[in-house]
Amino acid sequence: MGFILAAVLSWGTTTKLTLTDDTIHYRSFLIRKDIPLTDIIKIESATGFIAFSYKPYQRIIITRRDQSGKKEIILNGGLFDQGEIKRWVETTNSRLA
Questions:
Q1: Which of residues 79 and 14 earns the better pLDDT score?
Q2: Element (H, E) at 86
Q3: CB 63, CB 42: distance < 8 Å
């Protein structure tokens, strides 16, 4: 039980979303993504409920210019404050314009 608690706490405390001058950095317990701003078309925040369930979700959707076929990157926004995500999305989209 202690191992599970330690894993959950590590996951929650290591998740970070930062914006530098030219890159978005997302880091979670097992995931790390670095996305250059030049590859991004737009960023959106989505909230709602999973179909046929009462489980809420909060996502950050990054739409990229990509020829490899994967145009969207979906990040878990549930570990962040919703107001903070809204400000972050607005700031990032203003840098894209």
A1: 79
A2: helix 82-96
A3: yes
- pTM for this model (two decimals): 0.74
Average pLDDT over residues 32-55: 87
CA distance 85 to 74: 14
Q: Can you list the domains of the chain with their CATH numbers?
A: 2-96 (2.30.29.30)
The DSSP string of 12-80 is: HHH-EEEE-SSEEEEE-SS-EEEEEGGGEEEEEEEEEE-TTS--EEEEEEEEE--TTS--EEEEE-TTS
Length of the chain: 97
In the block, tokens 């997302």 appear at 26
Q: In 13-39, which positions are buried (b, 16+ CB within 10 angstroms) versus exposed (e)? A: eebebeeeeeebebebeeeeeebeeee
The answer to whether the CB of 16 falls within 8 A of the CB of 34 is no
